[in-house]
Amino acid sequence: DSTACDYDSTATLDDGSCDYISCACPNDVNSDGSITVADLLLVLSEFGCTSACAADVDGDGSVTVSDVLSVLSAFGSIC
To answer: What 8-state DSSP symbol labels residue 77?
Structure first.
């Protein structure tokens, strides 16, 4: 399925494992369908976290300026 996050153009068989969630809206930290102040506050509340961070938007294992900037770059977007 070309709309799946893990789309593989070489696949010839649908095994039902398509992922539609992981890339849908990574900056929507609270999963409410839009990037708002609430998402920014969640990232700021975990700023400096280095282990099991729920607000690690960029997936690098910690919540840093990069995560804040990522949320700000998508601010106001609807997922």
So the answer is: -
Look at 42 and 18; give whichever has higher pLDDT.
42
The tokens of 36 are what? 């708002």
Confidence of residue 77 (pLDDT cuts 50, 70, 90): confident
CA–CA distance, 14 with 4 (Å, rounded to integer): 12
Distance CA 68, CA 32 (A): 18
Query: With contact defined as beta carbons under 8 Å apart, do 70 and 60 qualify?
Result: no
* 3-state SS assignment for residue 35: coil
Measured distance CA(49)–CA(32) in Å, rounded: 22
- Strand partners for 78: 34
Q: Are 39 and 79 in contact (CB under 8 A)?
A: no
Distance of CA 71 to the CA centre of its chain: 9
